[in-house]
Amino acid sequence: MTDVSGVQGVPTWFGPEQSRLFGVLHVPEGGVARAGVVICPPLGRQYQDSYRGLKLLAQELCAKGFAVLRFDYRGTGDSTGNQCGDGAVDGYVESIGTAVSYIRAAGVESVCLVGLGVGALLAATAVEGTAGLVLWDPVTNGRRYVREQQALYRMTVAAGESEDLPPETGAVPLVGITLSAAGAKALGALKIPASVGSIPVLVLPRPERADDRQLADLVAAGNCTVQVVSGQPEFVEPPGIVVKIPLDTLAVIASWLDANLPTETVVLQPVFASDAEVGELPDGRKVVESITALGPNRLFAIRSAIAGAPDDGPTVLLHTTASDHRVGTGRLWSETSRELAALGVRVFRYDRRGVGDTGIATDEYAWITSADAQADVMDAVDALAVAPDRVFLTGICSGAWNSALAGLRHGARSLVLVNLPIYSWRRIDGVNERLWGVADFAAGDSEQPSEQPPALARAKQWVKNWLPYRGWLILGRLGYTQVPEVLFKSLGSRGLSTELVMSPLDYGWFSDHQGPIGFKRLARHGLAPRLTVAPGGDHAVLHRGLQNFIREHLVNAVRKEFADDL
């Protein structure tokens, strides 16, 4: 953590010891900066989708001489705090102030805020005392935002919701984040102020929101530049797993900051912290998270463990989904890591190359099951440096397949594979992208869309309906179809204790691909995994009740597997 130069950024914990925030500080070459920029991210699913784009923006600004801080609000991402706490929104606003104070303490006095989506609303609320403000695709009315996100959640994620899988009592689930009723009310009370004083302001609305009345009032107050930008839906509301970063908008922001912030440089002296206390047990022991790197490509990772836990003890490795970074959908992996660590196991969550905080961000899509991605999986599990019988692997969707790959090649005590849609070992490169219908279906569409010609779709359906199972199995072994028996026979033959956990939607996919037949055949040889179908939920695990179900299920599974060690 001693090299503070370069655009990649240095991860750190900062803020009060009792409520540490996670951030990444990008320090210009030579350790000098002309001004500071604090990037205020959106919330929920938009936070995950925009993560790489905001990192790319930070890199561009750093190259222009700005010290840039990306960070997670209290109760979100890797920062400490409860996302469902009644004071969550106050915590967001206070976190911005803490971020500004941190970057100022490093040596820069002039600090500008850049807020995206609802992050722009939060930045405008916390803007006092800063040198400038960029409102990128801004949410101007918190009440409207909460209503829209609730409606989207109900229509997609919670469609057909089961009474057996409710969220917490009094919780208000949005898409990718869950607030308490008080938190939702507090967020709903926020509005973009009509004036932010004398500081320069850049407003970047999407075309359909350019005539927003509250933005008009802000512009009328003066010292405000407005430029309509395109490409926002593909960036923060992508229809599938591929996020397109609006490079032109990044250039506009960089150019505006270059013209409106000081040019005189100062020497930076930032303070970096690689460890943070994130919890305390009843007996006074501390749960500590440590920033670390795994393998030869230095995959960014966070280790959660009780202070002083042995390095050769029971270890859990969490694999990410699609292009999400280590936090997980709905913050599932951050919260699960801390709960599992309190049991006495070590837990690692990490970013593969091209994702999150591993390496330099680019606008290139990081293919999910590429050769590089598979290499990263093996590097991560090898870097744990513990015996296979001390390793517990889990992940969702492509993360589940990565867990299976690591278990097959490295060995493991146990695997819990959640919403696994891929059952092949061959022809795997790009298979997630080819199974585009699964990705779109995960977003909540009532029917799986298909890009296939009707004749080909009918032919495939005929094969499913009429081809004998042995013929179907041969196609699966060749990698032309997804046949559950292929993957699970390999795992069973390896002697791995495996469980498949699925939402009802994923069980439908599993059944459509002859999963029940394959599992009956495996059971005759003692190779069938355990099978658990959740009462409800969605493929992408945006459903809050399913998040809680999976977290509890994993905690119980780890407690059972390592009962003699905990």
Give the topology.
Layout: E1 10-14, E2 21-26, E3 32-33, E4 35-40, H1 44-63, E5 66-71, H2 88-105, E6 111-116, H3 118-125, E7 132-136, H4 142-157, E8 171-173, E9 178-180, H5 181-188, E10 201-204, H6 213-220, E11 224-226, H7 232-236, H8 247-260, E12 266-267, E13 275-280, E14 286-294, E15 299-306, E16 315-319, H9 332-341, E17 346-350, H10 371-383, E18 391-396, H11 398-410, E19 414-418, H12 431-434, H13 436-442, H14 454-466, H15 469-477, H16 484-493, E20 497-502, H17 504-512, H18 515-523, E21 530-533, H19 544-561
Helix pairs in contact: 1-8, 4-5, 9-19, 10-11, 16-18
Describe this protein's structure.
The protein has 566 residues and is an alpha/beta fold. It has 19 helices and 21 strands. It has helices at 44-63, 88-105, 118-125, 142-157, 181-188, 213-220, 232-236, 247-260, 332-341, 371-383, 398-410, 431-434, 436-442, 454-466, 469-477, 484-493, 504-512, 515-523, 544-561, and strands at 10-14, 21-26, 32-33, 35-40, 66-71, 111-116, 132-136, 171-173, 178-180, 201-204, 224-226, 266-267, 275-280, 286-294, 299-306, 315-319, 346-350, 391-396, 414-418, 497-502, 530-533. The protein has a 9-stranded mixed β-sheet, sandwiched between helices. The protein has an 8-stranded mixed β-sheet with strand order 1-2-5-4-6-7-10-11, sandwiched between helices. The radius of gyration is 24 Å and the shape is globular. The two termini are 32 Å apart. Residues 1-5 and 436-451 have low confidence and may be disordered.
